[in-house]
């Protein structure tokens, strides 16, 4: 079996596609593109596809990842092009490479996010960011499938910078997973006057070396 690693994006209105919606679209594209998928054994075999760290529904993203098993060799670039010809608008296969050593999940330990807040007051936003960075911990609550959960937002923040019309965030990927909307909730608790609905985009995902994200598909 040939194992490939795939980077994909959700752009425009496709950001509202759920993780399950993407999975269905991706499997249809594999069939339409005549990609020789590898299947699991057992009574109900399914394609060997493994997803990692999906972004929340409603967030645009340039850096989602999955692993795909093939039953026969195909050139990674040819797989990328064939899938893009079969994918719905806004769902884009960015890169396909032959899987390197180790587990993909071990290479995904942080995310870079851009949160646009065009209606926010810049001075209030800067004050909220400074307040969060100065705190040793800062807890927020979010309703999940298992009930109301509490998250320490500050412990997940690796970098947070206020900028024109929003903020840039580098956050750790851990358990429980702190999302950029959790950080926005914390900022609004610090500065209740912050207004507007944030447009969230994941720009990158990988290992944070203190200054930049390392490409998880690099060998």
Series of H and E elements: EHEEHEEHEEHEEHEE
**Portion in helices:** 10-25%
Shape: elongated
Radius of gyration, CA atoms, in whole angstroms: 19 Å
What this model shows, in words?
With 219 residues, the chain is an alpha+beta fold. The chain has 2 domains: 2-106, Pseudouridine synthase I, catalytic domain, N-terminal subdomain (Alpha-Beta Plaits), CATH 3.30.70; 108-214, Alpha-Beta Plaits. Helices cover 24% and strands 35% of the residues. The chain contains 5 helices and 11 strands. Strand 2 and strand 3 (60-70) form a beta hairpin. Helix 1 (19-32) packs across helix 2 (76-86) and helix 3 (122-134) crosses helix 5. The longest helix is centred in the N-terminal third of the chain and has 14 residues, at 19-32. The chain is elongated and about 55 Å long. The model has no long low-confidence stretch (mean pLDDT 93).
Summarize the structure.
This protein has 219 residues and is of the alpha+beta class. It is 24% helix and 35% strand. Helix 1 packs across helix 2 and helix 3 crosses helix 5.
List the helices and strands and how they pair.
Layout: E1 2-10, H1 19-32, E2 49-52, E3 60-70, H2 76-86, E4 91-98, E5 110-116, H3 122-134, E6 139-144, E7 147-152, H4 153-156, E8 157-163, E9 166-172, H5 180-190, E10 199-208, E11 213-214
Parallel strand pairs: 3-10
Antiparallel strand pairs: 1-3, 1-4, 2-3, 5-9, 5-10, 6-7, 8-9, 10-11
Helix pairs in contact: 1-2, 3-5
């Amino acid at each position: 079996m040939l194992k490939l690693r795939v980077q994909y994006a959700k752009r425009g209105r496709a950001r509202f596609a759920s993780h399950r919606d993407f999975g269905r679209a991706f499997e249809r594209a594999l069939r339409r593109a005549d990609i020789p998928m590898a299947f699991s054994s057992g009574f109900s075999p399914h394609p060997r596809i493994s997803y990692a760290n999906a972004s929340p529904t409603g967030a645009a993203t340039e850096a989602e990842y999955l692993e795909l098993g093939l039953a026969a060799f195909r050139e990674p670039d040819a797989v990328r092009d064939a899938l893009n010809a079969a994918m719905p608008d806004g769902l884009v296969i960015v890169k396909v490479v032959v899987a390197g050593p180790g587990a993909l999940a071990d290479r995904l330990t942080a995310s870079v996010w851009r949160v646009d807040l065009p209606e926010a007051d810049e001075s209030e936003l800067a004050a909220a960011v400074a307040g969060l960075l100065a705190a040793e911990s800062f807890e927020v609550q979010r309703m999940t499938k298992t009930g109301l959960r509490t998250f320490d937002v500050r412990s997940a923040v690796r970098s947070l910078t206020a900028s024109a019309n929003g903020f840039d965030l580098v956050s750790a990927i851990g358990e429980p997973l702190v999302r950029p909307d959790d950080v926005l909730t914390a900022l609004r608790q610090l500065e209740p006057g912050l207004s507007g609905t944030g447009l969230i985009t994941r720009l990158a995902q990988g290992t944070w070396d203190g200054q930049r994200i390392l490409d998880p598909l690099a060998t």
